[in-house]
Amino acid sequence: MFKDNLNTLFSHQLKNTFLPEVNKYTEDELVSLLKIRDQSAFSYLYDNYAAALNGVIYRMVDEPQLGQDILQEAFLKIWNNFSQYDNSKGRLFTWMINITRNLTIDTLRSKGFKKQQKISHNEFSVGNIQDKNYSASGFDGIGLYKQLSQLKPEQKSIIDLAYFNGYTQEEISKEMGIPLGTVKTRMRSAIIELRKLMDVN
Amino acid sequence: MKETDIISSGLLELYATGLASEAEMLEVEEAVSQSPEVAEEFSRIERSLEAYAFNISKLPDAAVKHNLDERLFVNTVEKGNVVQMDNRDAKVYSISPAWKWVAAASIILLIGSAILNFKYYNEARDNMAAKEAADNSLLAQQTELDKMNSNFQVIQSKYSEPVSLHGLPAAPDAAAKIFWMKNTGEVYVDPSNLPPAPAGKQYQLWGMVDGKPVDGGMILDTKKGNRYEIQKMKSFGSAQAFAITLETSGGNPTPKGEMYVMGEL
């Protein structure tokens, strides 16, 4: 019951906070418009996804200005390479976070940073959610914190390292001190847990 | 790999979190495209991660969107959801002003040249027609002159013996002239003063040789201007007199028609 309330609250907040125009375009409509290089669709894309992608960048990049530069480059790349996006191979956000993540890693690497640079800040935490910059409309970070706290730390960690920080299986194995062969099965069980919490089943 | 196998393998999760190798990605894409069940499972994994990512959202500086608008839609005045033409895509290539002037000048010169061409062509065509007309006229005059010259030669020749043929009762006002070349026996007739031959009739010349009429040939009634031409007839070695009768067209071996004029040498 408590969880259901949280989920309702969560999805309500999600829509109000991050998808303010959620009813304006379906993902398919948005993709179709972006394929024909509709400028208002790009604006919509940015308004709805920039914060999420910026959050990913923020996890890896310490310097705010560099983070903003990377976000800008990521959206340029998304716009310029949009013809390459194939929605039969996955969701739009998966494609965009891949671009953003790879761009961030490449940028950091070119500046001599290592991936580990900022991971300690985020370990097992949802700190960013409580960050005062997190949301202009006062997101209920506490509720979400409780919700995500139901993920075991190692489950959250394996997802974060791969999905947000772009670690390879080898790097995850080393970072978490687990056998390489178990990364896949651990990732699966972590995401099964995540799906329950995110109510995506 | 069976649907359930690929779902339980963890490959979908690896793909969604960016951990899959190239080969594993192909395997997942294949399975997703072939099985709606796998596709749905994969979509749920993606959506759970997506929802998770939205929960670590962090609003970026407003400057980022502003910069993007400036870089992507330079000529756009308004921002936001107003649909704007993407000028980058339209690929409007600007031409330097100098070339615009050169192009404009070229077009003006071309048009001017075309107008002059047309004008000169028409003039040349008119001149050509005028020249042709003049040529024809000159040729006609030359022909006429030649004819007159030959007529004059007939008249002026020192061997020319003119014989006047006088009108007979059938045509008292009629007259004709014969020029008989004494040296060659050639006979020319000037039928100018004969009345016009009626349709189906023709004048025929006769020479009186030893009291008998001998055919001297048909007188052509073609006119040059308003005059009958002096024309060459059959030659006579000797003749005492000449006469012209009106015969049926083509003539007769002996005169059958009325005699119009006659004259003795």
What do you see in this structure?
The complex is a heterodimer of chains A (201) and B (265). With 201 residues, chain A is mostly helical. Helices cover 68% and strands 0% of the residues of chain A. Chain A is globular. Mean pLDDT of chain A is 78; it is low at 8-23 and 116-142. Helix content of chain B is 45%, strand content 21%. Chain B has 7 helices and 10 strands. In chain B, strands 5-4-9-10-1-2-3-8 form an 8-stranded antiparallel β-sheet. The interface between A and B is large, with 65 and 52 residues.
Which helices and strands appear, and what pairs or packs with what?
The complex is a heterodimer of chains A (201) and B (265).
Chain A: H1 2-18, H2 27-35, H3 39-60, H4 64-80, H5 92-110, H6 119-122, H7 127-130, H8 141-148, H9 153-164, H10 169-176, H11 183-198
Chain B: H1 3-9, H2 11-16, H3 22-34, H4 36-54, H5 62-72, H6 87-90, H7 97-156, E1 160-167, E2 175-181, E3 187-190, E4 201-209, E5 212-218, E6 223-224, E7 227-228, E8 231-232, E9 241-248, E10 259-264
Antiparallel strand pairs in B: 1-2, 1-10, 2-3, 3-8, 4-5, 4-9, 6-7, 9-10
